[in-house]
């Protein structure tokens, strides 16, 4: 007897939600084993994670703040992903966005006054888009695989910040420490409630806006057609080259916005780690959400909670790296479980001769 | 610039080249079978932390290397299970493997950070060979690991081009359906290739924490796994060319901390961008060149294979 996967006539309804739940269960089960092995009580640890992320207004506001870059990075990946393109460069585009925003702040705080933050965010969007320009051109004009080009530029972006803080943008008052100067006070996003800021509203509006627009507009329809079949798109008169180019640049711009909000909302100065791994996590978020904006928002909040929980349990001696481990495990669990939404396991009597099953 | 600093540079070129080559060779094997594994950085970190742990426990670097290879293969098998057996997306699964490997390594290595390295690879003692000017110090005053990497590279080249196993591997990577109908198990072949790739990435991590920079700290892999990925493309999926690329990129890594000694007024940080920028450049060149001829990349790379859907 052998086991074989057979495609279901139609995918299970709600299969992805189910897969996500299974993924979470698997991840936390594996996590519990790791915690026990390292001498911690998993129930206590998970209780503390839950309390710190959802147990109070303060916790909830932190969770939602963490969800902002995750959601925007997830949306960036999802916009490209709905056309079958992989933007692995969100991490670098977030950094580029932060550089753009920091550059505006450097031009002089008195330059813009109340306009400073909007200008910084616009610069962030532009910088993120510009940073995606190269891979977008290479992919649309020459057919160069965007996965590796966008990935490589992540490492370059981090080093650009390293260069800036060691050289041209080094803070002269920081006792020769390689840091960029602190941002002016008026470059901080206004608070919303507890520990959240209006970046939350901006991100929610952008994600919602994209969700509605791609669902309703001809543009969104073309995107999905192009994503499902290049031939169908050509037949429908959609210019693939132009579409690929715009989508990748747009994806970079959204990630850039995440960088702008990160800088103005959560940091006091531009640092090398401004990307915070959000770009990579965003790929997991988008994949779990099946490239749908509504799903991106939901998964981003869940991942934000895991991250906040991970930071909170540090006080009890559990390394915060458990958070990233859990996120990756959720994805693996959900990827595996998701297969069973589209396939079912059937038994076959004996190994069929190759070719006979086709 | 005197002789000592120059010899020091060449020694470092080989050291960094070895680090990159082990991981890139593993990735080449996986990709040849049609599986892209973006988890190199994570597998390297897992190899590094387990090797260092085993080194501290046993005092023997070779045990560390072996443990790292096993750990790397095990971590890689998660990617194999999800992306090969179940046919999940290779890009997503591979990136998740990097996040998993880095996270898990940091978690497991929490208590190892203060630990002093008890096991380090020692230099080879080849008697008279060590006394040859220049070559003695550069080639033979190394540990055995660079030679091991070279041997593995030659072996991989031999298997790829001269054996039936290599033929099967390439067939699976070029056209899984064709390989399947000729009786090859696509899943088994790919799974083995991915796990060998993981083992080599793990060994690369071991070389890092037991020889190149003895010790363990979070983030010690510092993006070298991404360079290894880049090298595979740079070397056009050929073990020999990947090796030359490893020496070139290893050279850039070795030059980085030495630029000032050589009196070059360029920021070493700008130099450190070069491997990544070069790779993008090579990709663009390859695609311009390959417009009129077949691509050098394995044709089935990134594609899941399910028998019923061919």
- H/E element string of chain A? EHHHHHHHHHHHHHHE
Q: State the name of the first-level CATH class of chain B.
A: Mainly Alpha
Q: Output the number of helix runs of chain B.
A: 13
Query: Which oligomerization state do the chains in this entry correspond to?
Result: heterodimer
How many domains comprise the coordinates of chain A?
1
Radius of gyration of chain A: 22 Å
Terminus-to-terminus distance of chain B: 61 Å
CATH architecture of chain B: Orthogonal Bundle
Q: How would you characterize this protein structure?
A:
The complex is a heterodimer of chains A (358) and B (310). With 358 residues, chain A is mainly α. Chain A is built from 14 helices and two strands, in the order βααααααααααααααβ. Chain A has a two-stranded antiparallel ribbon. The longest helix of chain A is centred in the last third of the chain and has 27 residues. Chain A is globular. Chain A starts with a strand and ends in a 10-residue tail after the last strand. In chain B, helix 1 crosses helix 10. Classes of the chains: A mainly alpha (358), B mainly alpha (310). The interface between A and B is large, with 55 and 52 residues.
Task: Lay out the secondary structure.
The complex is a heterodimer of chains A (358) and B (310).
Chain A: E1 2-7, H1 15-37, H2 42-54, H3 57-81, H4 90-106, H5 116-131, H6 133-142, H7 146-166, H8 199-216, H9 218-228, H10 230-235, H11 240-266, H12 278-288, H13 293-312, H14 321-342, E2 343-348
Antiparallel strand pairs in A: 1-2
Helix pairs in contact in A: 1-14, 2-3, 2-13, 3-8, 3-11, 3-12, 3-13, 4-5, 4-7, 4-11, 4-12, 5-11, 6-11, 8-9, 8-13, 12-13, 12-14, 13-14
Chain B: H1 3-32, H2 40-58, H3 61-85, H4 90-108, H5 135-140, H6 145-162, H7 164-174, H8 176-181, H9 186-212, H10 224-234, H11 239-255, H12 268-272, H13 274-289
How would you briefly describe this protein structure?
The complex is a heterodimer of chains A (358) and B (310). With 358 residues, chain A is mostly helical.
């Amino acid at each position: 007897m052998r086991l074989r996967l057979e495609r279901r006539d139609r995918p299970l309804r709600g299969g992805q939600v189910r897969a996500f739940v299974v993924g979470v269960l698997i991840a936390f089960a594996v996590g519990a084993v790791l915690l026990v092995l390292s001498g911690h009580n998993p129930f206590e640890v998970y209780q503390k994670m839950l309390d710190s992320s959802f147990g109070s207004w303060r916790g909830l506001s932190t969770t939602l703040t963490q969800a902002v870059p995750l959601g925007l990075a997830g949306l960036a990946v999802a916009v490209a992903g709905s056309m079958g393109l992989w933007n692995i460069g969100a991490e670098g585009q977030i950094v580029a966005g932060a550089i753009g925003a920091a550059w505006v702040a450097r031009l002089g705080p008195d330059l813009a006054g109340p306009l400073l933050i909007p200008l910084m965010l616009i610069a962030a969007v532009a910088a993120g888009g510009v940073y995606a320009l190269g891979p977008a051109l290479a992919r649309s004009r020459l057919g160069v695989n965007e996965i590796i080009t966008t990935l490589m530029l992540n490492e370059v972006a981090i080093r650009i910040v390293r260069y800036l803080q060691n050289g041209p943008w080094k803070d002269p008052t920081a006792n020769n420490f390689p840091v960029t100067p602190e941002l002016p006070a008026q470059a901080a996003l206004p608070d919303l409630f507890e520990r959240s800021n209006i970046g939350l509203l901006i991100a929610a509006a952008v994600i919602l806006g994209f969700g509605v627009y791609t669902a309703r507009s001809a543009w969104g329809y073309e995107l999905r057609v192009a994503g499902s079949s290049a031939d169908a798109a050509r037949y429908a008169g959609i210019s693939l080259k132009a579409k690929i180019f715009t989508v990748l640049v747009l994806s970079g711009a959204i990630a850039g916005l995440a960088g702008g909000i990160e800088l103005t909302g959560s940091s006091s100065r531009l640092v090398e780690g401004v990307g915070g791994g959000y770009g990579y996590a965003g790929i997991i978020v988008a994949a779990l959400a099946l490239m749908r904006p509504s799903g991106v928002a939901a998964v981003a909040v869940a991942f934000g909670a895991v991250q906040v929980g991970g930071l909170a349990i540090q006080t009890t001696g559990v390394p915060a790296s458990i958070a990233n481990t859990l996120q990756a495990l959720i994805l693996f669990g959900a990827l595996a479980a998701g297969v069973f939404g589209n396939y079912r396991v059937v038994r076959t009597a004996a190994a069929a001769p190759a070719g006979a099953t086709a | 610039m005197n002789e000592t600093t120059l010899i020091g540079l060449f020694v470092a070129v080989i050291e960094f080249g070895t680090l990159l080559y082990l991981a890139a060779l593993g990735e080449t094997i996986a990709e040849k079978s049609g599986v892209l594994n973006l988890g190199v950085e994570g597998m390297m970190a897992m190899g590094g932390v387990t090797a260092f742990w085993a080194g501290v426990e046993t005092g023997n670097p070779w045990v560390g290397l072996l443990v790292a290879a096993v750990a790397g293969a095990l971590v890689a098998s998660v990617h194999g299970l999800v992306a090969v057996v179940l046919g999940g997306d290779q890009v997503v699964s591979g990136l998740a493997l990097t996040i998993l490997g880095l996270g898990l390594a940091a978690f497991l290595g929490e208590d190892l950070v203060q630990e002093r390295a008890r096991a380090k690879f020692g230099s080879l003692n080849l008697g008279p060979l060590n006394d040859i000017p220049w070559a003695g110090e550069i080639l033979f005053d190394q540990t055995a690991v660079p030679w091991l990497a070279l041997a593995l590279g030659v072996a991989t080249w031999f298997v790829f081009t001269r054996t039936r196993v290599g033929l099967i591997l390439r067939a699976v990577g070029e056209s899984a359906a064709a390989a399947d109908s000729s009786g090859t198990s696509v899943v088994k072949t790919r799974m083995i290739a991915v796990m060998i790739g993981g083992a080599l990435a793990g060994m690369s991590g071991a070389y890092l924490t037991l020889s190149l920079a003895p010790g363990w700290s979070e983030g010690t892999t510092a993006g070298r796994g991404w360079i290894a990925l880049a090298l595979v493309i740079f070397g056009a999926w050929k073990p020999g060319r990947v090796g030359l690329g490893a020496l070139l990129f290893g050279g850039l890594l070795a030059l980085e901390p030495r630029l000032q000694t050589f009196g070059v007024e360029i920021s070493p940080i700008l130099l450190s961008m070069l491997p990544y920028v070069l790779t993008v450049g090579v990709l663009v060149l390859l695609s311009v060149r390959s417009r009129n001829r077949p691509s050098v990349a394995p044709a089935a790379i990134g594609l899941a294979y399910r028998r019923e859907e061919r």
